[in-house]
Amino acid sequence: MIDLYGISSPNVLKVIIMLEETGLTYDLHRIDIWAADQFTDEFKALNPNSKVPVIVDHDGLGGQPVTLFESGAILFYLAEKLQAFLPSTPQDRYATMQWLMLQMGTIGPMFGQATHFRSSAPAGQEYSLSRYTTEVHRLYDVLEARLSQADYLGGEDYTIADMATWPWAAMYHEQNGVELSRIPAVKRWIETIAARPAVVRAHQDWPSLVAYALERRASADPDKRDRLHGRGRYARGPRP
Ligand SMILES: N[C@@H](CCC(=O)N[C@@H](CS)C(=O)NCC(=O)O)C(=O)O
């Protein structure tokens, strides 16, 4: 039994997909990041970095509970635990890890910043929005080049690298003005993964999670919203 702490975010969806793919039993606990739930001592005991997703696997190493944050580490842990979705041959295994790292280190942060500057930044942030949107377009091209050569990011097989990248690639093309018809290999890969029964199941509660996020965001106290985004009285360091 696994406790998953999350909201409707691509980093959480990738873990839900893995849990559905592997058939593990889990409970999803909603964290209201707009009400600063992630900064409580209770949550920081799970993740000192105050972000979702986090899992607590009650049947972890040696039968003892394991608590893990960082979605890439969670996918890697579950893949090793179940010997699933991580190839065993060294070449494919490292290829999978390389694409997983690209998602964690670059795709997630760049797509995330583009979304932030599009939806939450005050006016006058055109430079930032343009910089991150350009990065998003460039990264779709990187995916297109890879997926023109291989069925999946790690090679022939569907792996945790695809699970990590798919939620970002599938959800953010439209708002960034990326035309899928221009990147047919990415389009094929998005559609193939979307049709997987586990991915369909992973979306069963998604509309309710999205509705929860929209409602919490709309009713957020302005000070808590500033805290979430590290601005206003929460901004630190030299001012520009
Ligand atoms: N690299 C982390 C990123 C986690 C992350 O940024 N989570 C966001 C939701 S997508 C969050 O918890 N935001 C709350 C906050 O920043 O206070 C991962 O992949 O797990």
Automatic annotation (TrEMBL):
<dbReference type="Pfam" id="PF00043">
    <property type="entry name" value="GST_C"/>
</dbReference>
<feature type="compositionally biased region" description="Basic residues">
    <location>
        <begin position="227"/>
        <end position="240"/>
    </location>
</feature>
<dbReference type="InterPro" id="IPR036249">
    <property type="entry name" value="Thioredoxin-like_sf"/>
</dbReference>
<dbReference type="InterPro" id="IPR004045">
    <property type="entry name" value="Glutathione_S-Trfase_N"/>
</dbReference>
<dbReference type="InterPro" id="IPR010987">
    <property type="entry name" value="Glutathione-S-Trfase_C-like"/>
</dbReference>
<feature type="region of interest" description="Disordered">
    <location>
        <begin position="220"/>
        <end position="240"/>
    </location>
</feature>
<feature type="domain" description="GST C-terminal">
    <location>
        <begin position="89"/>
        <end position="214"/>
    </location>
</feature>
<dbReference type="InterPro" id="IPR036282">
    <property type="entry name" value="Glutathione-S-Trfase_C_sf"/>
</dbReference>
<feature type="domain" description="GST N-terminal">
    <location>
        <begin position="1"/>
        <end position="86"/>
    </location>
</feature>
<dbReference type="InterPro" id="IPR004046">
    <property type="entry name" value="GST_C"/>
</dbReference>
<dbReference type="InterPro" id="IPR040079">
    <property type="entry name" value="Glutathione_S-Trfase"/>
</dbReference>
<protein>
    <submittedName>
        <fullName>Thiol:disulfide oxidoreductase</fullName>
    </submittedName>
</protein>
<dbReference type="Pfam" id="PF13409">
    <property type="entry name" value="GST_N_2"/>
</dbReference>
